[in-house]
Amino acid sequence: MSEYLAIVVFICIAAVISIVLGILPMFFMPSKSDSEKLSAYECGFNPLSSARKSFDIKFYLVSILFIIFDLEIIFLFPWGVSLPQIGYSGFLSMMTFLTILTIGFIYEWCKGALEWET
Q: Where are the transmembrane segments (predicted)?
C-alpha cells in the first residue's frame, strides 16, 4: 500500500486545487450583466431567448466531424507508444485506418461540409 501513497497525495492535491479554483471565482466575479455577456455567442442565438428554436444542421455536422477526428488522435497515441511491440502488421492496420479517415475527410471537404455559409 505504501507504493500508492504518492498517487493518493496527488489525487488529494488535485481535488483541493479543483475545489478552490471552482469556488474562488464565485467571490470575485462581477454580478452585473454587461452587453458582451448578453450578446449572441458562437451559435448566433440570443442567450436569453427560447430554447425551442431550431438551428442549422451545420452545427451538428461540425461537432460530429470534430468528434471523429478527435477519436482519431485518441487512437494514435497508444498506437505510437506500442508500435515497436506490434510491428509491421500494426503499422499497416493503422495506415489503413488513417487512409479510410482521410478519404472520409476529403469526401466531406468536397461536399462542402466544412464551408461555413450563414
A: 6-28, 59-80, 86-107
Sequence-distant contacts of 93-102: CB under 8 A, at least 24 apart: 97/72, 98/72, 101/68, 101/69, 101/72
- The whole-number pLDDT of residue 15 equals 97
DSSP 8-state symbol, 112: T
Whole-prediction pTM value?
0.47
- CA distances to 21, 37, 44, 51, 58 from 55, in Å: 34, 21, 9, 11, 9
At residue 50, φ and ψ (nearest 5 deg) are -65, 145
Angle at 60 between CA 115 and CA 94, to 5 degrees: 80
